[in-house]
Automatic annotation (TrEMBL):
Gene: der
PROSITE patterns tied to this protein: G_ENGA
Highest taxon above the source species: Bacteria
Gene Ontology MF annotations: hydrolase activity
PANTHER family registered for this protein in UniProt: GTPASE DER (PTHR43834:SF6)
Protein name: GTPase Der
Residues given in the record as GTP 2 binding sites: 182-189, 229-233, 294-297
Length: 435
């Protein structure tokens, strides 16, 4: 599992610029595949061959100028809970502000590595000015300029060094890992309790790959799997959880650790922005997804049918709409086993391997029926294709001029794959390569 890095600091110190710089290269790759812009506050980065996840805490604050100190404090506390390493960004132009001191005070108590990063240091004079930041009591600092990128290399080297050594966990069994995610009060705990019932059904608590990700082995009704929980999710937050930030950030670790995400939404509230952010998070990490519309017992069935509701949700999921949506009630236990079955099915879908001969037989016909449109009078020919031996479904199509195969055509190929094979709930990658 990836290490998680949180970027904290008061508004306008350059957190987002640093964040964008860190995720830039990776994002370019991801986006060219999916063709969709996603959550701008969470991304993957890589340095010296080490991949990690980055969260820009500031990105979740609305109207950054009138942010209250309390808001920042909550974010820093959450970052401390959820991240492995924290980058605290300050601004040499402004010097130490009272809000910086508040943040520093919180961070001084932390046992996790904190990197103090002084932004906008782009000349020798400012290098001298930066000395003042020793007063924050966080020890040595790094200077950088997020706009030009100078200094970020050293910062990244230090970041990689600061990552905790993760214990190597021996995989003794290949049980699917399910994470139950969603907004606060959607009914996640109720769902888990309804399934697990009393404690005797919990077989073991296995400490996962990190000290705070817990796999609970579940063995009931003929299903065997691990429920991924994290310390952060298990513990009810002490603060009012009304910000998108909380539910998303709390979900990051669980999602990254899981194979399949069970996204619980509240039927009485509908599919909201936060639900969408969590959905993108799962999709971006190439996890399987099942959506449970919970509290269905509270919905007046005359006014809203499951089909209408499903249509509404699917509009929000575009373009990845091939996702199972089930209408459940943790309270009345309606369709809970169906929900589990659907989740197991998604796990199977994600694992499935299509024989190359079968794949070619079907796809080459599909391509012949509707070939890639000609570009500048050139015709693209696809002669061969296959599924890659990867953990998540990825397909490669070999073409004479791959650069002329555009996103809509890839979408067409993906739809055809989904029509013929069951990949419901599973993100798919399509690559076009030169043959
Ligand atoms: P969590 O924060 O996502 O874990 O949500 P909880 O499981 O704590 O549930 C939040 C509230 O919704 C609690 O008061 C539950 O009793 C209630 N609740 C959960 N599931 C259902 C349901 O299916 N139907 C109804 N009517 N209430 C539910």
């Amino acid at each position: 599992m990836n290490n998680i890095v949180a970027i904290v600091g008061r508004p306008n110190v350059g957190k987002s610029t640093l964040f964008n710089r860190l995720i830039q290269r990776r994002e370019a790759i991801v986006d060219s595949v999916s063709g969709v812009t996603r959550d701008r506050n969470y991304g993957k980065s890589e340095w010296n061959g080490k991949e990690f996840s980055v969260i820009d805490t500031g990105g979740y604050v609305r109207g950054s100028d009138d942010v209250f100190e309390g808001e920042i404090r909550k974010q820093v506390e959450l970052a401390i809970d959820e991240a492995d390493v924290i980058i605290f960004v300050v601004d040499v132009e402004e010097g130490i502000t009272p809000m910086d001191e508040t943040v520093a005070k919180l961070l001084r108590k932390v046992t996790k590595p904190v990197l103090l990063a002084v932004n906008k240091v782009d000349n020798a004079m400012r290098e001298k000015d930066a000395i003042e930041f020793y007063n924050l009591g966080l020890g040595d600092y790094f200077t950088f300029a997020s706009i030009s990128g100078s200094g970020t290399g050293d910062l990244l080297d230090a970041l990689i060094d600061a990552f905790p050594e993760k214990p190597v966990v021996e995989v003794t069994e290949e049980l699917p890992r399910f994470a139950v995610v969603g907004r606060p009060n959607a009914g996640k705990s109720s769902f888990i309790n309804a399934l697990i019932g009393q404690d005797r059904y919990i077989v073991t608590d296995i400490a996962g790959t990190t000290r705070d990700a817990i796999d609970t082995k579940f063995d009931r009704f003929g299903f065997e799997f691990n429920l991924v929980d994290t310390a952060g999710i298990r513990r009810k937050a002490k603060v009012k959880e009304d910000l998108e930030f909380y539910s998303v950030m709390r979900s990051v670790r669980a999602i990254e650790h899981a194979d399949i995400c069970i996204l619980v939404i509240d039927a009485t509230r509908g599919f909201e922005g936060q639900d969408q952010s969590i959905f993108w998070l799962a999709e971006k990490n190439r996890k399987g997804v099942v959506i449970l519309v919970n509290k269905w017992d509270l919905v007046e069935k005359d006014t809203m049918s499951t089909r209408d509701y499903e249509e509404k949700i699917k509009k929000e999921l575009m373009p990845f709409t091939d996702v199972p949506i089930l209408f459940v009630s943790a309270l009345t236990k309606q369709r809970l086993l169906k929900a589990l079955e659907a989740t197991v099915q998604v796990f199977e879908n994600r694992k499935q391997r299509i024989a190359t001969s079968k794949f070619n037989e079907y796809m080459l016909k599909v391509i012949e029926a509707y070939p890639p449109p000609a570009t500048k009078g050139k015709y693209v020919k696809i002669k061969y294709c296959m599924q890659l031996p990867t953990l998540t479904p990825q397909f490669v199509f070999f073409a004479n001029m791959p650069q002329y195969v555009k996103e809509p055509y890839k979408r067409y190929l993906e739809n055809k794959i989904r029509e013929n094979w069951d990949f419901a709930g599973v993100p798919i990658d399509i690559y076009i390569r030169e043959k």
